[in-house]
Design a protein that fits this description.
The protein is of the alpha+beta class. Helix content is 29%, strand content 32%. The protein has helices at 5-15, 56-60, 89-104, and strands at 21-26, 29-34, 37-43, 46-50, 65-68, 75-81.
């Protein structure tokens, strides 16, 4: 599955030149990892965000958000945001920052 390279470029710009960020192809798209833990990614035209189990319900109330479910088993703590909901840089930035903040709270891999 191809992913939206334009969205990936916008995520790279938001994350900046942080040496703790790496990229890895996964889930048929591209993931951005902070110290080895996935923070955000791109799948198709959509944004994946790791928000953590405790923040899942609140995240699902936001525009374009749905539970991450690629295998028929929904994954609490992981959100997919419709690409149209992150068309504006402010909306994308809020999600990217949230994903990075969650990953920053995890032990490095």
């Amino acid at each position: 599955m191809a992913y939206d390279e334009g969205l990936a470029v916008r995520i790279r710009e938001r994350l900046g030149a942080d040496p703790e960020i790496s990229e890895k192809r996964m889930f048929g798209g591209l993931a951005f990892l902070y110290r080895g833990n996935m923070a955000v990614g791109v799948t198709g035209d959509d944004l994946m965000v790791r928000v953590g189990p405790e923040a899942t319900d609140a995240a699902l109330t936001r525009s374009g958000a749905r539970i991450f479910d690629m295998t028929g088993r929904p994954m609490r703590g992981w959100i997919v945001v419709d690409g149209t909901a992150v068309a504006e840089d402010e909306a994308l930035g809020a999600w990217v920052d949230e994903g990075r903040a969650f990953a920053a709270g995890l032990p490095p891999k």
